[in-house]
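User: I'm writing a short methods note and want a consistent example. For MerR family transcriptional regulator, I'll paste the sequence; you return only the structure tokens, no commentary, since I'll be parsing the reply automatically.
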Amino acid sequence: MFIAFRQNNQREGVMKFTRSQFSKTFGISMESLRYLEKNGSIQIARNQENQYIEYTEEQIPIILSIKKFQQAKIPLEEILPLTGQQVPDHIAFLDHCIGELKQQKEQIEASLGYLQFIQSVYQEEIQKVNQLQLKWEGECFYLRFDPKGRNNVLIREAMQYLPHVDLMTILDLDQLDEEQPKVQLGLNLPLYIDSCKPLIQAVEHSNQLHKTADGTYLYKVIFKTNILKIRRSDIQNMLDYAAQHHFTLQQEIFGFVMGPEIRNQEKGYYIRLYCLIQKDAE
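Assistant:
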């Protein structure tokens, strides 16, 4: 297929180009030429013998002007709505670009405002983490936390300071009846934050009450095994103990302690699970 155009000083004849030659002469891709032909941005006609497509010289400025925009990395589909069949209106196009940039600026400012808000929340949470009381009890740390999930992020942040615990997994009580994976203590510590208890299969434990400075009590369970398994019955045992001894379970606060223990000159580990309870009014 041949393409041609007229030169100002060659009105008598027609200079003929193949599409490939025309593309190379004016530095515009053949794909762009086909696109411009198809959508009518440049007017083409066949010669009388129907042997080639003819580009009139009136179309050349349009192509060259479009090429300038392409060199600025502006896609054809953004240029063409402003061109029609005329030489592109540069002022109109620049106004259009400025409008687009203003819209992008507004979107960026909105996103920036949101990110700054998230940053302030995160900074506030970090301050709360720094305020968490990590108390040293003998050879272990003690941490109180909220079972309702409000402090999950803070707990995760604080967990890194607890010895022998690399990862905390928060599970749902509804999953208690399902088989739970067995994990090595020190690698993964399943905790059920909206109740009270990691539980363990075939475990020795002792229950104690510790009175706190504010008059509440801590119900303590000491686990002495390194394989954890959660059982609903262990939670029920704690609730039964509280009821039998006229204590009210305060489900807003739970805590645990984990640390090393030496027995028979061998070093092992233990977990103490705390549940804050109050003595019923008599």
